[in-house]
Amino acid sequence: MKDEQFFVISGPCVAESKEMLHDIAASLKESCDKLGIKLIFKASYKKANRTSINSFTGAGDEKALGWLASVREKFGLPVITDVHSTAEAHIAASYVDYLQIPAFLARQTELLVAAGETGLPVNIKKAQFMAPEDMAKAAEKVASTGNNNILLTERGTSFGYHNLVVDFRSLIIMKQFGYPVVYDATHSVQQPSVGDQSGGTPEFIPALARAAAAVGINGMFFETHPEPAKALSDAATQLELSKAEDFLKDILRIVSVSEK
Question: Which residues are 224's β-sheet partners?
Answer without folding.
Answer: 239
